[in-house]
Amino acid sequence: MRALIWSFYNEIQASSETHAFLMTTQTPRLVFTQSFTSMCKSSEKTASLIESVCSSGHKHGAILDKMANKLFNMFAKNIVNEANSAQHKLCKRKQGTPTVASDERKIKKLQSRQ
Fold first, then answer.
1. First to last CA, the chain
2. Do the beta carbons of residue 29 and residue 22 sit within 8 Å?
3. Are 88 and 22 in contact (CB under 8 A)?
4. DSSP secondary structure letter of residue 92
5. Chain centre distance of CA 97
6. Residue 102 C-alpha from the chain's centroid
7. Per-residue DSSP letter, 113
8. CA-to-CA distance for 23 and 28, rounded, in angstroms?
9. For residue 59, what are the β-bridge partners?
10. What average pLDDT does the segment 7-25 reach?
11. Which residues, in sequence order, are CB contacts of 37 under 8 Å at separation 6+?
């Protein structure tokens, strides 16, 4: 299941078209959850897990939508953090060497207080 989640995340990140569609759609959570759910149901590895039943008689597939919603929250947070980091990196002030004029102003200011 972990490998499936990771491959789904990588597919979203690798395909700029998929990423752009997910970001511009009116209902990104719905698109994400339906895509993830259909991917899980079509995978041979997870299909048997989804159809299995616990000792109390509950199907594991019943929590698939809830799990997809939680994954959407996690993925969205990571995508937003990456976008914010990229933006902050662009806007960050560059450290430069102080100019002679600024050094002279500082010296003059410190000497005038005496």
1. 71
2. no
3. no
4. S
5. 36
6. 43
7. T
8. 7
9. 53
10. 81
11. 64, 65, 68
Six-digit token pair at 75?
A: 């993925």
Report residue 99: phi and psi, to 5°. -85, 165
Query: What's the half-sphere exposure (Cβ side, CA atoms, 13 Å) at 75?
Result: 23
Under the banding of pLDDT at 50, 70 and 90, the label for residue 99 is: low
Per residue in 77-96, pLDDT (tens digit) is 888 888 888 888 888 766 66
Q: Which of 91, 89, 87 is nearest to 79 (CA)?
A: 87
Separation of alpha carbons 35 and 68, rounded Å? 9
Sequential DSSP letters for 10-69? HHHHH-HHHHHHHHHSS-HHHHHHHHHHHHHHH-HHHHHHHH-B-TTS-BGGGGHHHHHH
Which pLDDT does position 50 carry in this prediction? 80
Half-sphere exposure of 40 (CA within 13 A, CB side): 24
List of residues 6+ apart from 18 with CB closer than 8 A: 11, 12
Report the Cα 6 to chain-centroid distance in Å. Answer: 12
